[in-house]
Design goal:
By secondary structure, the chain is mainly alpha-helical. It is built from 17 helices and 4 strands. The chain has a 4-stranded mixed beta sheet with strand order 1-2-4-3, with helices on both faces. The longest helix has 37 residues, at 182-218.
């Protein structure tokens, strides 16, 4: 869940900086103009978030002002049972029906309950158990400090939407001022919509993960009432794949499966891996564009970009594969499917940014060429297979996960070094195929920051091999990768 929050934060902030830089370049402005654009992009989203929070709070009233006094007393008793040292303001939301939510600040939490839900408290058996389970679920959010994370995630979502709106407005003004054509506007709009949707899907995946965590806390007091509450909201549409990606809360079937089999949550869904890889693909292009020095032989930027984005991407895939190693019904093809999700996400995400200094509004992502895609596919599969082998080997000597800190102490540094080196090679290879630094073959092009290569793919591959050949970091990465696989065997022998 922390990885999803970090992914959401990094994606939104990098996108905001990217759009602010783009707008500044359109005006040929300096640092002051960049700060103005940054403020212009962030302020509407944060203001909308503040108004939204205030609007939700004003639509509620204290339970004492309603006729549901006994239900309020029952909720107060549950608050003392679950979180006795924290004051929680319990309010009535007349529009909620049988639903509930938690809002307010982390130090002054507010639980809002619908009248139909409060009415269940006086009913017998299963219905009363469902009422208590829902209240405990909301209290679990308070106890876990979710309000901090919810406020951050919601503020980032609003900032992402306001950034997308301003970018769309600038694209439309280009068309009105005859600086762009309608076809380019439509293509850019589709890419902008996909980029905004990508961030929104990451945010909703994070919110669903927090809901699962609250369910598990509520299940500590009994699973029957929670299952009954979930069953109340079950519909035929909960199994829709599209709806499952767009929901803030998990579907009824997903919640029931997670409560009855918590080990199911250990494995990250392939959809989350795809989202993370797409965000990384976008970050590759964005960060490279922000770091380009303009020198005709800028070899450092693609390498640095590959390392900075490749390390978090490797850890994102690694923790998903490592958690699945301790899952009971483990999918044997998980490494292959994870590699496919990483490959697809990287290719898709790398073509989403709207504008770069390299090719203006033309795509600058991973080339759709057989040699490039094959190299990326082999590299990601090898990495995912190696990460999966690490988790599987350690699971054999530690099936109860009692020595997990020891495993992470040697596996995380090894994954960072190996993944950083691999993506530095793969991204440099991809960037040179696209023409990002290649050394300019003509005298006229020597002063340009970016040169399009006229060499063949085999010549570019040879150049990359010479640059990364038998170097200290290449040898070290291979040695560490081999040694990491040998550690569990050594411990098992002892």
């Amino acid at each position: 869940m922390i990885l999803l929050l970090l992914l959401l934060t990094g994606t939104v902030l990098l996108n905001v900086f990217f759009i602010a830089t783009w707008l500044t370049r359109l005006e040929n402005g300096g640092a002051a103009s960049f700060l103005q654009k940054l403020q212009m992009l962030l302020t509407p989203g944060l203001a909308a978030f503040a108004l939204y929070s205030a609007f939700r709070a004003r639509r509620t009233k204290p339970i004492a002002q309603s006729r549901l006094h006994e239900a309020g007393q029952a909720v107060a008793a549950l608050v003392k049972q679950v979180s006795p040292l924290r004051y929680v303001d319990v309010r009535l939301g007349e529009h909620l029906g049988g639903r509930a939510y938690v809002t307010g600040h982390a130090r002054k939490p507010i639980i809002v309950l619908g009248p139909e839900l409060l009415a269940l408290h006086s009913m017998p058996d299963e219905r009363k158990a469902a009422f208590e389970a829902v209240v405990r679920h909301e209290l679990a959010h308070v106890r876990a400090g979710d309000l901090w994370w919810y406020q951050l995630a919601t503020a980032l979502r609003f900032a992402n939407l306001s950034t997308g709106f301003f970018a769309l407005l600038v694209l439309w003004l280009d068309v009105l001022l005859d600086r762009g054509d309608v076809t380019s506007f439509l293509v850019s709009t589709l890419r902008l919509a996909a980029l905004t949707l990508l961030t929104e899907l990451i945010a909703r995946a994070f919110l669903r993960a927090r809901e699962h965590a609250a369910d598990l806390h509520a299940a500590e007091f009994g699973v029957e009432g929670l299952l009954a509450a979930v069953k109340e909201h079950e519909t035929d549409r909960t199994r829709s794949v599209v709806r499952s990606w767009l929901r803030h809360h998990p579907g009824a079937d997903e919640r029931s499966q997670a409560v009855t089999n918590p080990g199911h949550l250990l494995a990250s869904p392939f959809g989350q891996v795809l989202l993370g890889a797409a965000a990384a693909g976008t970050a590759f292009v964005t960060l490279q564009d922000l770091l380009l020095s303009g020198a005709p032989e800028d070899k450092v930027t693609p390498i640095l970009t590959g390392v900075v984005i490749g390390v978090p991407l490797t850890l994102f895939a690694a923790f998903g594969l490592w958690r699945s190693a301790w899952q009971e019904n483990r999918n044997r093809l998980r490494a292959l499917l994870t590699a496919a999700a990483v490959l697809g996400g990287l290719v898709i995400g790398s073509h989403l940014p709207l504008y770069t200094r390299i090719f203006d509004q033309a795509p600058i992502g991973i080339p759709i060429a057989l040699s490039s895609l094959l190299s990326l596919a082999l590299g990601t599969f090898a990495l995912c297979w190696w990460l999966d082998a690490l988790g599987t080997s350690w699971h054999r000597i530690d099936p109860g996960a009692t020595r997990m800190p020891t495993f992470l102490n040697y596996a995380v540094p090894a994954a960072c070094l190996t993944g950083g080196w691999l993506f530095a090679v793969l991204w440099t290879w991809s960037a040179r195929l696209r023409g990002v630094y290649l050394g300019c073959p003509t005298e006229e092009a020597k002063d340009l920051p970016i040169c399009v290569s006229t060499t063949q793919q085999s010549d570019i591959a040879l150049t990359v091999a010479q640059d990364f050949g038998i170097t200290f970091w290449s040898v070290l990465a291979l040695v560490v990768a081999a040694a990491a696989l040998a550690v569990p065997r050594f411990l098992r022998a002892r």
